[in-house]
From TrEMBL, chain A:
This is DUF1468 domain-containing protein. Keywords: Membrane, Transmembrane, Transmembrane helix. It comes from Ruegeria profundi. Pfam families: TctB. The chain crosses the membrane at residues 6-26, 47-63, 88-115, 127-145.
Automatic annotation (TrEMBL), chain B:
The keyword Secreted does not apply. Pfam families: TctA (PF01970). This is Tripartite tricarboxylate transporter TctA. The chain crosses the membrane at residues 6-31, 43-67, 109-134, 146-162, 169-188, 200-224, 262-282, 326-345, 357-380, 392-409, 416-445, 465-488. InterPro entries: DUF112_TM (IPR002823). Keywords: Membrane, Transmembrane, Transmembrane helix. Residues 18-440 form the DUF112 domain. It comes from Ruegeria profundi.
Length: 160, 504
């Protein structure tokens, strides 16, 4: 099965869970005075759930012949290994890491590390250029956001 | 209108707003030039900055400046490197790049700048005439018609965005609408679908979603496939002059394409990309025989047409945003989100309640176009140096700015994890060839759509409003036709080689 139908399948499952929540769990909590309203909080989700399930089935069953124009896709997911997949995954892991250490390590060190490790992941080896650039950029961004825009960003780690 | 213009002039000519226009255009040009980063990503990254400015006119002036700048920057990289940074400027590379190869890069850039300037200015003029007219009509609309109009807008966007894959685009719109129902709705004061998580109480953040849908997948694609980020020095750019004869040749093209591009931009779902391709095709068809030969080999008409059309379309796409509050493209949807975050609701009342915002935007369009012409054109040889930044530096910075954008909006590190998660999801969707713009537009319109639906249901005590109001019924019928006809036609014909619909 092609990826787009797998995606449709996943969305179908999600839509069914969503529809179940809308049809069977929400209305019981409704206070009596709101039950006389023509529209309930669950009305719109119910409509959406039904429409989504229909559209998903439409794609899953292949009712719409997608026009195959022979267009070369930007990236062919079937040959994902041919691309720089490890770099992409490494950067994603770095982003998660950044999210986790941003508070405890403070903005300056977290950003500096992120920029340096990101470049190194992509294959940069000239540390003598990289380190000053990353340090300078972290400071400039912190200065702009914290001092100019006035959004507080804790610059130093929690123990300082 | 004169009164409005004066209000706009006084608002736009404050030092702060002038600075915003100049800054926006410069930033937009810089980033728009980088291949792979479209105006949507750039505007998404700029939103937190715009929101912290706090003044809605200044914020939208900044973002609009970024928008024109991005389109202009995109055409620069199209011409110099044959690497369009923006889908709306793909057509500019057809003739712009051959011109640059022939050593006429300077002339090509001048033509692009003049064509963009003319397209943008004529578009702004038309906007000034049509927006007030449309918003007078729109004042007669009730919530039932608003609901129907939004449905029309959403289905038009789905129909255009998914060339040949309407079902996928419709599905994305629905997913966007579903995501909009998470959190507490204004009408009911009751949390829905939060799964007990406090972080979801106020719903998903629109900035995070915009970043996750556009900036992050674009950056990941650049990492995966380095060939996408075509790099190189642009060579020497000199001799920016064009002759009087050449000027005479492109003048009628510019005139026609400004008007055509503008009206294509007004239609929901059809943005700068479609306008530029159509403009190119129309001009090629009506050119004389020997001029037709030249198209694709460095024709100045073939460069002027898409450049004029895409800028006029950008301006045109502001019409539904400012008068109806319904965005016609991904970019205007992001602008709408920014305006709502600033406590301004675009719509027919905008001209009455906040005339200074409405007119300041229009005046800033003129200023923005002027800035692009007189400031950016001489600076282009220097700005083009940005194309030589190594990607090892560029990509970590792009990722960092995406993270920053969603962090400073909320000051919440959990938001970053949501961003990465949704970004991975969006990348998978992109792999599977699902259009992402409808999802974001559905998300942004979802709240308003439900509010208007609920209001009409309450007024008419049930679903009867659809049949009691002929206009609502008519609009809903149009909406259904918009989705059904293309998918019916797609079954039979497979035409359309150039399905570059995303990105404006």
């Amino acid at each position: 099965m092609a990826l787009d139908r797998w995606v449709a399948f996943v969305i179908l499952c999600a839509a069914m869970a969503y529809g179940y929540a809308a049809f069977f769990t929400m209305d019981a909590l409704l206070p009596p005075f709101m039950q006389r309203n023509p529209i309930w909080p669950s009305t719109f989700p119910k409509v959406l759930a039904v429409l989504t399930i229909i559209t998903c089935l439409f794609i899953l069953l292949g009712l719409e012949k997608s026009e195959d124009d022979g267009k070369e896709p930007d990236i062919d997911y079937r040959r994902l290994g041919d691309y720089h997949l490890s770099q992409a995954l490494g950067l994603l892991a770095l982003m998660v890491g950044y999210a986790l250490v941003l508070r405890p390590a403070g903005f300056l060190s977290a950003t500096f590390l992120f920029l340096v490790l990101g470049s190194v992941t992509l294959g940069e080896r000239k540390l003598i250029v990289l380190l000053p650039v990353a340090a300078f950029a972290s400071f400039v961004v912190w200065y702009l956001v914290d001092e100019v825009l006035g959004i507080f960003l804790r610059p130093w780690p929690f123990f300082l | 209108m004169i009164e409005g213009l004066l209000i706009g002039l006084s608002a736009a000519f404050s030092i702060q707003n002038l600075l915003m226009v100049v800054a926006g255009c410069l930033i937009g040009t810089f980033i728009g030039m980088l291949p792979g980063l479209g105006p949507m990503s750039i505007i998404a990254i700029m939103i937190p900055v715009a929101i912290t400015i706090g003044d809605p006119s200044a914020a939208i002036i900044l973002l609009a400046g970024v928008y024109y700048g991005a389109i202009f920057g995109g055409s620069t990289s199209s011409i110099l490197l044959n690497a369009p940074g923006v889908a709306g400027t793909v057509a500019s590379s057809f003739d712009g790049y051959p011109m640059a190869r022939k050593g006429q890069a300077g002339k090509a850039l001048t033509i692009a700048a003049i064509a963009s300037f003319a397209g943008g200015s004529i578009g702004a003029l038309l906007l000034m005439v049509f927006a007030p007219m449309l918003s007078t009509v729109a004042l007669l609309f009730h919530s039932a018609e608003y609901f129907a109009l939004m449905v029309v807008g959403l289905s038009a966007i789905a129909a255009f965005a998914g060339t040949g894959n309407v079902a996928k685009a419709v599905l994305m719109t629905l997913v966007g609408l579903i995501m909009a129902t998470v959190g507490e709705g204004a009408l009911f004061n009751m949390p829905r679908f939060t799964m007990g998580l406090m972080d979801l109480q106020s719903g998903l953040s629109f900035i995070t979603l915009a970043m996750a849908m556009f900036a992050l997948p674009e950056a990941l694609f650049l990492v995966l496939n380095p060939a996408r980020s075509a790099q190189g020095s642009s060579g020497k750019i000199e001799n920016l002059r064009i002759s009087r004869e050449e000027g005479r040749k492109i003048a009628p093209v510019i005139g026609r394409q400004s008007v055509q591009g503008f009206f294509i931009g007004v239609l929901p779902g059809a943005g700068a990309t479609i306008a530029s391709f159509l403009g190119y095709a129309v001009e090629r068809n009506i050119a004389s025989k020997e001029e037709q030969e030249e198209f694709g080999k460095g024709s100045i008409k073939g460069l002027a047409a898409p450049e004029t059309a895409n800028n006029a379309a950008c301006t045109g796409s502001f019409v539904p945003l400012l008068t109806l509050g319904i965005p016609g493209s991904g970019t205007t949807a992001i602008l709408l989100g920014a305006l709502i975050a600033l406590n301004v609701t675009p719509g027919p009342r905008l001209m009455i309640d906040n005339p200074q915002i409405f007119w300041a935007v229009i005046i800033s369009m003129y200023i923005g176009n002027l800035v692009l012409l007189i400031l950016n054109l001489p600076l282009i040889p220097y700005i083009a140096k940005v194309l030589a930044i190594p990607r090892n530096y560029l990509i970590p910075f792009i990722l960092f700015f995406t993270l920053m954008g969603s962090y400073i909006g909320q000051n919440n590190a959990t938001e970053l994890l949501i961003l990465v998660g949704m970004g991975i999801g969006a990348t998978v969707l992109k792999f599977a060839d699902y259009p992402l713009a409808p999802l974001l537009i559905g998300f942004i319109l979802g709240g308003m759509l439900e509010d208007n639906f609920a209001r009409s249901m309450q007024l008419y005590d049930g679903i009867g409003f659809i049949f009691n109001r002929p206009m609502t019924l008519g609009l809903l019928v149009i909406a259904v036709l918009l989705v059904v006809i293309p998918s019916y036609r797609a079954r039979r014909a497979k035409a359309r080689k150039e399905g570059v619909a995303e990105g404006d």
